[in-house]
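Notebook, bench 3.
Goal today: get a predicted structure for Methyltransferase domain-containing protein from Corynebacterium halotolerans YIM 70093 = DSM 44683 so we can plan the truncation constructs. The sequence was checked against the plasmid map this morning, with no discrepancies at the termini. Length recorded as 288 residues. Pasting the sequence as submitted so the record is complete.
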Amino acid sequence: MLSDIIDVLADPVDGTPLSGADDFSRLVSESGHSYDVARQGYVTLAGGAGLRHEGDDMSMINDRETFLSRGHFAPFVEAVTSSVHDSLDDAEVPDDAHPVILEVGAGTGYYLAHTLDDVIGSRGVGLDVSVHAARHLAKCHPRVGAVAADVWARLPLRDASVDVITVVFAPRNAAEFARVLKPGGQVIVLAADRGHLAELRDPLGIIDVEEGKVDRLIEQAAGHLRPVGGSEYIEFAMNLDRDSIAAQIGMSPSARHIPAPELAERIASLPETMTVTARAGITRLQHA
Protein backbone atom coordinates (compact mmCIF):
# COMPACT_ATOMS: atom_id res chain seq x y z
CA MET A 1 0.00 0.00 0.00
CA LEU A 2 1.07 3.58 -0.56
CA SER A 3 1.09 4.16 3.19
CA ASP A 4 3.96 1.65 3.47
CA ILE A 5 6.24 3.71 1.23
CA ILE A 6 5.06 7.28 1.80
CA ASP A 7 8.32 8.09 3.59
CA VAL A 8 10.26 7.69 0.32
CA LEU A 9 7.88 9.36 -2.14
CA ALA A 10 8.51 12.87 -3.43
CA ASP A 11 6.74 15.46 -5.53
CA PRO A 12 7.73 14.84 -9.18
CA VAL A 13 7.73 18.60 -9.81
CA ASP A 14 10.05 19.88 -7.09
CA GLY A 15 11.18 16.84 -5.09
CA THR A 16 9.59 17.90 -1.80
CA PRO A 17 8.30 15.09 0.46
CA LEU A 18 4.80 13.72 -0.01
CA SER A 19 2.37 12.76 2.73
CA GLY A 20 -1.06 11.15 2.79
CA ALA A 21 -4.17 13.30 3.16
CA ASP A 22 -7.87 12.56 3.56
CA ASP A 23 -7.26 8.95 4.58
CA PHE A 24 -4.75 8.51 1.75
CA SER A 25 -7.25 9.42 -0.94
CA ARG A 26 -4.61 11.86 -2.17
CA LEU A 27 -0.95 12.64 -1.65
CA VAL A 28 0.16 16.20 -0.98
CA SER A 29 3.59 17.80 -1.04
CA GLU A 30 5.09 20.40 1.24
CA SER A 31 4.94 22.81 -1.69
CA GLY A 32 1.17 22.38 -2.01
CA HIS A 33 0.83 20.04 -4.99
CA SER A 34 -1.84 17.34 -4.71
CA TYR A 35 -2.09 13.95 -6.44
CA ASP A 36 -5.28 11.89 -6.30
CA VAL A 37 -5.01 8.20 -5.46
CA ALA A 38 -7.01 6.10 -7.93
CA ARG A 39 -9.73 3.88 -6.50
CA GLN A 40 -7.63 0.87 -7.54
CA GLY A 41 -4.95 2.02 -5.07
CA TYR A 42 -2.21 3.47 -7.27
CA VAL A 43 -1.13 7.07 -7.72
CA THR A 44 0.09 8.85 -10.85
CA LEU A 45 3.06 11.06 -10.04
CA ALA A 46 3.95 13.21 -13.02
CA GLY A 47 4.61 16.88 -13.72
CA GLY A 48 2.13 19.33 -15.20
CA ALA A 49 2.19 17.76 -18.66
CA GLY A 50 1.30 14.34 -17.22
CA LEU A 51 2.75 11.06 -18.43
CA ARG A 52 4.39 11.47 -21.83
CA HIS A 53 4.21 7.77 -22.70
CA GLU A 54 1.43 5.20 -22.38
CA GLY A 55 3.53 2.08 -21.86
CA ASP A 56 2.01 -1.38 -22.11
CA ASP A 57 -1.69 -1.58 -22.92
CA MET A 58 -4.14 -3.84 -21.12
CA SER A 59 -3.65 -6.69 -23.58
CA MET A 60 0.12 -6.69 -23.07
CA ILE A 61 -0.26 -6.61 -19.30
CA ASN A 62 -2.73 -9.51 -19.40
CA ASP A 63 -0.33 -11.50 -21.59
CA ARG A 64 2.48 -10.81 -19.14
CA GLU A 65 0.30 -12.01 -16.27
CA THR A 66 -0.58 -15.18 -18.19
CA PHE A 67 2.99 -16.03 -19.15
CA LEU A 68 4.68 -15.28 -15.83
CA SER A 69 2.00 -17.00 -13.74
CA ARG A 70 2.83 -20.27 -15.51
CA GLY A 71 6.35 -20.15 -14.05
CA HIS A 72 8.23 -20.15 -17.34
CA PHE A 73 10.67 -17.47 -16.13
CA ALA A 74 11.11 -18.91 -12.63
CA PRO A 75 14.94 -19.07 -12.89
CA PHE A 76 15.00 -15.36 -13.74
CA VAL A 77 12.76 -14.57 -10.78
CA GLU A 78 14.98 -16.55 -8.42
CA ALA A 79 18.12 -14.89 -9.80
CA VAL A 80 16.74 -11.39 -9.23
CA THR A 81 15.68 -12.21 -5.67
CA SER A 82 19.05 -13.79 -4.92
CA SER A 83 20.81 -10.68 -6.23
CA VAL A 84 18.66 -8.48 -3.99
CA HIS A 85 19.79 -10.52 -0.99
CA ASP A 86 23.42 -10.15 -2.11
CA SER A 87 23.01 -6.40 -2.51
CA LEU A 88 21.48 -5.98 0.94
CA ASP A 89 24.24 -8.12 2.44
CA ASP A 90 26.92 -6.04 0.70
CA ALA A 91 25.40 -2.87 2.17
CA GLU A 92 25.10 -4.55 5.59
CA VAL A 93 21.42 -3.64 5.82
CA PRO A 94 20.06 -4.98 9.15
CA ASP A 95 17.31 -7.59 9.02
CA ASP A 96 14.91 -5.26 10.85
CA ALA A 97 15.58 -2.21 8.65
CA HIS A 98 12.51 -2.67 6.39
CA PRO A 99 14.55 -2.00 3.23
CA VAL A 100 12.94 -0.30 0.26
CA ILE A 101 13.09 -2.15 -3.05
CA LEU A 102 12.14 -0.17 -6.14
CA GLU A 103 11.26 -2.02 -9.33
CA VAL A 104 11.25 0.16 -12.44
CA GLY A 105 9.03 -1.04 -15.27
CA ALA A 106 7.46 -3.38 -12.74
CA GLY A 107 4.56 -4.50 -14.93
CA THR A 108 2.29 -6.85 -13.00
CA GLY A 109 4.59 -6.92 -9.97
CA TYR A 110 5.39 -10.62 -10.38
CA TYR A 111 9.12 -10.24 -9.70
CA LEU A 112 8.69 -7.63 -6.98
CA ALA A 113 6.09 -9.65 -5.07
CA HIS A 114 8.35 -12.70 -5.07
CA THR A 115 11.26 -10.65 -3.74
CA LEU A 116 9.16 -9.07 -0.98
CA ASP A 117 8.00 -12.52 0.10
CA ASP A 118 11.62 -13.63 0.36
CA VAL A 119 13.13 -10.53 2.00
CA ILE A 120 11.47 -10.33 5.40
CA GLY A 121 10.06 -6.92 6.26
CA SER A 122 11.01 -5.34 2.95
CA ARG A 123 8.83 -2.72 1.29
CA GLY A 124 8.30 -2.33 -2.44
CA VAL A 125 7.79 0.58 -4.79
CA GLY A 126 6.33 -0.70 -8.05
CA LEU A 127 6.83 1.94 -10.74
CA ASP A 128 5.55 1.72 -14.30
CA VAL A 129 4.50 4.29 -16.89
CA SER A 130 1.47 2.16 -17.78
CA VAL A 131 -1.64 2.82 -15.70
CA HIS A 132 -2.82 -0.68 -16.64
CA ALA A 133 0.32 -2.05 -15.00
CA ALA A 134 -0.16 0.22 -11.99
CA ARG A 135 -3.59 -1.29 -11.37
CA HIS A 136 -2.03 -4.75 -11.19
CA LEU A 137 0.83 -3.50 -9.03
CA ALA A 138 -1.56 -2.07 -6.46
CA LYS A 139 -2.89 -5.55 -5.68
CA CYS A 140 0.21 -7.70 -6.26
CA HIS A 141 1.46 -7.63 -2.65
CA PRO A 142 0.35 -6.01 0.64
CA ARG A 143 3.69 -4.18 1.01
CA VAL A 144 3.82 -2.73 -2.51
CA GLY A 145 3.00 0.89 -3.21
CA ALA A 146 2.02 1.32 -6.87
CA VAL A 147 3.13 4.42 -8.76
CA ALA A 148 2.50 5.38 -12.37
CA ALA A 149 5.50 7.46 -13.41
CA ASP A 150 7.96 7.94 -16.25
CA VAL A 151 11.46 6.53 -15.78
CA TRP A 152 12.80 9.17 -18.19
CA ALA A 153 11.57 12.02 -15.99
CA ARG A 154 12.55 12.89 -12.43
CA LEU A 155 11.62 9.84 -10.37
CA PRO A 156 9.05 10.70 -7.67
CA LEU A 157 11.35 9.50 -4.91
CA ARG A 158 13.44 11.29 -2.32
CA ASP A 159 17.20 11.49 -2.60
CA ALA A 160 19.06 8.50 -1.11
CA SER A 161 15.83 6.74 -0.12
CA VAL A 162 16.02 3.35 -1.85
CA ASP A 163 18.11 0.32 -0.83
CA VAL A 164 17.88 -1.68 -4.06
CA ILE A 165 16.54 -0.96 -7.55
CA THR A 166 15.56 -3.83 -9.84
CA VAL A 167 15.07 -3.45 -13.58
CA VAL A 168 13.78 -6.49 -15.45
CA PHE A 169 13.67 -6.17 -19.25
CA ALA A 170 12.83 -2.48 -18.78
CA PRO A 171 14.32 0.99 -19.48
CA ARG A 172 17.00 2.48 -17.22
CA ASN A 173 17.82 6.01 -16.09
CA ALA A 174 21.27 5.82 -14.52
CA ALA A 175 21.38 9.43 -13.32
CA GLU A 176 18.07 9.14 -11.48
CA PHE A 177 18.94 5.71 -10.11
CA ALA A 178 22.13 7.14 -8.63
CA ARG A 179 20.18 10.01 -7.08
CA VAL A 180 17.57 7.89 -5.28
CA LEU A 181 19.91 5.08 -4.17
CA LYS A 182 21.12 5.10 -0.60
CA PRO A 183 24.90 5.06 -0.08
CA GLY A 184 25.92 1.45 -0.63
CA GLY A 185 22.71 0.70 -2.52
CA GLN A 186 22.72 -1.23 -5.78
CA VAL A 187 20.85 -1.50 -9.06
CA ILE A 188 20.10 -4.98 -10.38
CA VAL A 189 19.48 -5.18 -14.12
CA LEU A 190 18.19 -8.27 -15.90
CA ALA A 191 18.57 -7.80 -19.66
CA ALA A 192 17.90 -10.24 -22.48
CA ASP A 193 21.03 -11.55 -24.19
CA ARG A 194 21.73 -12.90 -27.66
CA GLY A 195 20.03 -16.29 -27.98
CA HIS A 196 16.95 -15.37 -25.93
CA LEU A 197 13.88 -16.94 -27.60
CA ALA A 198 16.15 -17.95 -30.49
CA GLU A 199 13.86 -20.77 -31.66
CA LEU A 200 11.01 -18.29 -32.21
CA ARG A 201 12.92 -15.63 -34.13
CA ASP A 202 12.70 -17.05 -37.65
CA PRO A 203 9.24 -18.70 -37.62
CA LEU A 204 7.58 -15.66 -36.02
CA GLY A 205 9.76 -12.88 -37.42
CA ILE A 206 10.19 -11.26 -34.01
CA ILE A 207 12.80 -8.68 -33.04
CA ASP A 208 16.23 -10.08 -32.19
CA VAL A 209 18.33 -9.05 -29.20
CA GLU A 210 21.09 -6.64 -30.16
CA GLU A 211 24.64 -7.93 -29.88
CA GLY A 212 26.47 -6.79 -26.72
CA LYS A 213 23.36 -5.44 -25.00
CA VAL A 214 24.63 -6.17 -21.49
CA ASP A 215 27.98 -4.49 -22.16
CA ARG A 216 26.17 -1.49 -23.61
CA LEU A 217 24.01 -0.95 -20.53
CA ILE A 218 27.18 -0.77 -18.42
CA GLU A 219 28.67 1.79 -20.80
CA GLN A 220 25.49 3.88 -20.71
CA ALA A 221 25.58 4.00 -16.90
CA ALA A 222 29.17 5.27 -16.78
CA GLY A 223 29.64 8.39 -14.68
CA HIS A 224 26.67 7.50 -12.50
CA LEU A 225 26.95 3.79 -11.79
CA ARG A 226 29.67 1.15 -12.07
CA PRO A 227 29.43 -2.65 -12.10
CA VAL A 228 29.84 -4.78 -9.01
CA GLY A 229 31.92 -7.66 -10.34
CA GLY A 230 31.02 -9.25 -13.66
CA SER A 231 27.63 -9.97 -15.18
CA GLU A 232 26.12 -13.40 -14.64
CA TYR A 233 24.45 -15.12 -17.58
CA ILE A 234 21.41 -17.30 -17.04
CA GLU A 235 20.23 -19.73 -19.69
CA PHE A 236 17.58 -22.43 -19.50
CA ALA A 237 15.10 -24.27 -21.69
CA MET A 238 11.35 -23.70 -21.53
CA ASN A 239 8.69 -26.10 -22.78
CA LEU A 240 6.07 -23.78 -24.26
CA ASP A 241 2.71 -24.54 -25.81
CA ARG A 242 1.17 -22.22 -28.37
CA ASP A 243 -0.83 -20.30 -25.76
CA SER A 244 2.32 -19.58 -23.78
CA ILE A 245 4.17 -18.55 -26.93
CA ALA A 246 1.34 -16.20 -27.83
CA ALA A 247 1.46 -14.68 -24.34
CA GLN A 248 5.24 -14.30 -24.46
CA ILE A 249 5.14 -12.47 -27.78
CA GLY A 250 2.09 -10.48 -26.71
CA MET A 251 3.92 -9.05 -23.70
CA SER A 252 7.00 -8.07 -25.71
CA PRO A 253 7.83 -5.17 -28.07
CA SER A 254 7.25 -7.55 -30.98
CA ALA A 255 3.52 -7.29 -30.29
CA ARG A 256 3.67 -3.71 -31.58
CA HIS A 257 5.46 -4.60 -34.81
CA ILE A 258 3.48 -7.56 -36.17
CA PRO A 259 -0.25 -7.26 -37.01
CA ALA A 260 -2.26 -9.47 -34.65
CA PRO A 261 -3.91 -11.63 -37.38
CA GLU A 262 -0.54 -12.28 -39.01
CA LEU A 263 1.08 -13.16 -35.69
CA ALA A 264 -1.78 -15.52 -34.80
CA GLU A 265 -1.38 -17.28 -38.15
CA ARG A 266 2.35 -17.75 -37.60
CA ILE A 267 1.81 -19.12 -34.09
CA ALA A 268 -0.85 -21.54 -35.35
CA SER A 269 1.72 -23.01 -37.76
CA LEU A 270 4.10 -23.90 -34.91
CA PRO A 271 4.21 -27.35 -33.27
CA GLU A 272 1.82 -27.80 -30.34
CA THR A 273 4.78 -27.50 -27.95
CA MET A 274 8.31 -26.22 -28.47
CA THR A 275 11.53 -26.13 -26.49
CA VAL A 276 12.56 -22.48 -26.38
CA THR A 277 15.74 -20.98 -24.93
CA ALA A 278 15.60 -18.22 -22.33
CA ARG A 279 18.85 -16.29 -21.87
CA ALA A 280 19.65 -13.07 -20.04
CA GLY A 281 22.47 -11.33 -18.22
CA ILE A 282 22.09 -10.07 -14.66
CA THR A 283 24.29 -7.16 -13.65
CA ARG A 284 24.69 -5.36 -10.34
CA LEU A 285 25.66 -1.69 -10.32
CA GLN A 286 26.57 0.75 -7.56
CA HIS A 287 27.47 4.42 -7.26
CA ALA A 288 30.39 5.36 -9.50
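The mean pLDDT is 93. The chain has one domain: 49-287.
Flagging this for group meeting.
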